[in-house]
From TrEMBL:
InterPro entries: CB (IPR044068), DNA_brk_join_enz (IPR011010), Integrase-like_cat_sf (IPR013762), Integrase_catalytic (IPR002104), Integrase_recombinase_N (IPR010998), Tyrosine_recombinase_XerCD (IPR050090). One of its GO terms (molecular function) is DNA binding. Residues 56-133 form the Core-binding (CB) domain. GO terms for biological process: DNA integration; DNA recombination. Residues 152-320 form the Tyr recombinase domain. It comes from the Bacteria. It comes from Acidithiobacillus ferrooxidans (Thiobacillus ferrooxidans). This is Integrase. Gene3D superfamilies: 1.10.150.130, Intergrase catalytic core. Transmembrane segments: none annotated. Keywords: DNA integration, DNA recombination, DNA-binding. Belongs to the 'phage' integrase family.
Length: 345
């Protein structure tokens, strides 16, 4: 039967197996509500009498995905992306999620933002559809090819640039930025850092597994510079290290950040690039890649190799392997120059 709650029609019937089906029709149009009622009732009869697989929608998959993946470090990002996708896939049956339809939506995001951002949305769709196969809601997942992405340079600051930036930042952001440069911690870990995670006597701090992107605990050795920042923050707040007007800092890349960059004459630099700067300085100072991986809490060595080119000294001996050949070329070149000079004279 159909009945109304406020302006919205609701569906209520009992399937042949005795299961009660009660749900909103999400419409105030009785004709549309009746069509949905009849379709759901017909599907319920076919599932019980003919053994057909239930028809699940994108909404059903998204809700189950969120329920099962609430532990993910990127859960908030998934929620944001699903909210955007919902405006295009709301109510669409999984069996009707065709490749061309999905790529049309992905193209909208690509034109609106960038290929890299669109790829994050495609990755989420792929993951959900693969999970639907695991749940036996689909027979097979679609093959969705990612967009080509331009290789980006690692953006980092020279020490003198970092000094100019720190001088231009307001006090609370300056402390956070200096601490980031000293520890390499991610933005979220710095913003949410609590005094209970710090032992100044031992000179260490720690990031708990549920706070780390790779879901593995990170031990942080506090340098004298990091400790100096923490000592400046003592007494500011009973729980959080970095606060502004007695509240935890929730936004670092705001107007104050961008204005400071402009005054410091620094372009194309994000807050996350402070972490890149920390890693780049370490590599140039001789820190081994495998140790940097552990210090930075990266899950794989591949994530660290993007900094390797900044310290090619470990290949210096190999670079000399062809020096004998190059020296011979130099002799030949000198002789040619001498011959030319004699011909001219």
């Amino acid at each position: 039967m159909l009945y109304k709650r406020g302006k919205t029609w609701w569906i209520d019937f009992t399937a042949p197996n005795g299961q009660r089906i009660r749900r909103s029709a999400d419409t105030d149009d009785k004709v549309q509500a009746q069509e949905l009622h009849d379709r759901l009732k017909s599907e319920a009869w076919r599932q019980v009498k003919l053994g057909e697989r239930p028809s699940y929608t994108w909404d059903d998959a998204g809700l189950r995905w969120l329920d099962e993946k609430a532990h993910k470090a990127s859960f908030a990002d998934d929620v944001q992306r699903l909210n955007w996708l919902q405006s295009y896939f709301r109510g669409v049956l999984l069996t009707e999620m065709k490749k061309n339809i999905i790529m049309e939506v992905a193209d909208l995001k690509r034109r609106e933002t960038s290929p890299a951002t669109a790829n994050r949305y495609l990755a989420l769709i792929r993951s959900i559809l693969r999970q639907c196969v695991e749940w036996e809601w689909l027979d097979a997942a679609l093959m969705l090819r990612a967009y080509p992405e331009a290789k980006r340079r690692v953006r980092w600051l020279l020490p003198e640039e970092a000094q100019r930036l720190l001088l231009e930042l307001p006090a609370h952001l300056r402390d956070m930025a200096e601490f980031s440069l000293a520890t390499g911690l991610r933005q979220a870990n710095v913003k949410e850092l609590e005094w209970s995670q710090i032992n100044l006597f031992r000179g260490v701090a720690w990031i708990h597994p549920d706070q780390a992107k790779a879901r593995k605990a990170i031990g942080v050795n506090l340098t004298p510079s990091a400790i100096a920042v923490l000592r400046r923050r003592l007494g500011e707040h009973h729980r959080y290290v970095f606060t502004y007007k007695d509240h935890p800092v929730t936004q670092v890349s705001g107007k104050a950040w961008w204005n400071a960059l402009k005054r410091a004459g620094i372009e194309n630099f994000r807050w996350h690039d402070l972490r890149h700067t920390w890693a780049s300085w370490h590599i140039q100072a001789g820190t081994p890649l495998f140790k940097l991986q552990e210090m930075g809490g990266w899950e794989s060595m591949e994530m660290v190799l993007k900094y390797a080119h900044l310290a090619p000294e470990h290949l210096a001996a190999e670079a000399l392997n062809i020096e004998t050949i190059l020296a011979g070329l130099g002799t030949f070149t000198s002789q040619r120059e001498k011959d030319l000079e004699e011909n001219i004279s």
